[in-house]
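Here is the promised in-class demo. Please do not try to memorize the tokens; focus on the logic of going from shape to residues.
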């Protein structure tokens, strides 16, 4: 399963780094995200969000089914 990871870093001038990890569950995704976080932003990272990545080809839109 793919998980989208967003890391916020940079202190007062907040920036975001987004990447995807493949893992069987959330715990494994957390471990993979920790390994994949670039070492140059790790000291400045203050928030990490992990969520199941949405497959754009499988996403439904409001116009569908009406």
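The designed amino acids, position by position:
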């Amino acid at each position: 399963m793919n998980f989208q990871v967003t890391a916020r870093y940079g202190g007062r001038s907040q920036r975001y780094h987004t990447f995807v990890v493949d893992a069987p569950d959330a715990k494994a995704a957390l471990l993979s995200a920790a390994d994949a976080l670039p070492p140059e932003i790790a000291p400045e990272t203050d928030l990490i969000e992990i969520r199941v990545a949405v497959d754009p080809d499988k996403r439904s839109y409001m116009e569908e089914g009406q």
